[in-house]
Amino acid sequence: MAMLKLTQEGTRNLEKELQYLTKRKKEFRHSPEKEFIQSRMAEIEDILSQSSTWPIVREPGYFVEPGSAITIEETVYKERYTYTLVHPFEADPRENMISIESPIAKAALGKAVYSTFSVRVPLGDNLTYTIIDIQNC
């Protein structure tokens, strides 16, 4: 399996969850949730063993890649959005962290600043965006 790249925060959150589950494991030893806790712990351990952490420092980037923080502008309404493209384990749209497997991220990956890309939305229309800024680790 390829090396996973996680943000500093994502790595920290997984480590905290693993610690929490380890402490709670004894409480659930006679509960139906025991299997869930054991499988989740194994999943987190597997993720952490196969991952590396992106550095905090960001520099202007030339191309969108996993880990990039991108600012895009919708071409019709001129609304701007900033997203960080992360591994699906870390995706949290409320924090503007979107999965590299999301439609916007897939369309933006590999593109340069001022490139335009389109994303098909459920109603069948296309939304078009221009990349305004790229910050890479």
Automatic annotation (TrEMBL):
Transmembrane segments: none
Keyword DNA-binding: no
Keywords, ordered alphabetically: Elongation factor, Protein biosynthesis
An example molecular function term from Gene Ontology annotations: translation elongation factor activity
SUPFAM superfamilies: FKBP-like
Transcription elongation factor GreA/GreB C-terminal domain boundaries: 63-135
InterPro entries tied to this protein: GreA/GreB_C_sf (IPR036953), Tscrpt_elong_fac_GreA/B_C (IPR001437), Tscrpt_elong_fac_GreA/B_fam (IPR023459)
Protein biosynthesis in keyword set: yes
Pfam families in UniProt: GreA_GreB
Name of the protein this chain belongs to: GreA/GreB family elongation factor
